[in-house]
Amino acid sequence: MKIRIAVIIICITLMLIVTSVIDSFNHSETDRPEKADVIIMLGGGDKGRMEKAAELYHEGYADYVIITPESEDIYPQSTEFARELGIPEDAIIEEYEATSTYTNAVESFKIMDEYGFDSALVVTSDYHLKRSKLIYDRVSDGQYDLKYIAALGAGGEKWNERSYADRIWFNEFYKLWGYRLGLYNFIDVPDEK
């Protein structure tokens, strides 16, 4: 009887592990863009994120773009690059405090509250979309209407077409599980102001 229970537990554990690994390859289920109050461009990645945010802006999906975090030192997430892509300065909202996807969400929602925004298109790299959706939905708790838009790499390639796709997969796999387990609550707590 004890052996049978042990075999069942091992089989269930193996099924969970296999399912988790298979699911980890599906990162980029992008939503169809809809008119929103603001586009939120998450910092990090390459120029593809800002290029996608600019494309959505020029197609009229929103009148404002939040850059979270804005960085003069990191060109792909700078106001300068956004302006070069044709986003006017008065349409750019800069956020400087975020240090992770979790604090991106916290700081973005503070800005949305300040401006009275109810809806947003959240733009990030295709490999980062699943984790962004997880944390933005968790922090939002249904308060905002959010759509998640995947940006391809600056060269137009998907995450799994890149030469370093194995590193991308591994990084997102362990970070996603850290977020699912709520470890961001202990590691990256936003400053109270």
TrEMBL record:
Pfam families: DUF218. Residues 37-139 form the DUF218 domain. Gene3D superfamilies: HUPs (3.40.50.620). This is YdcF family protein.
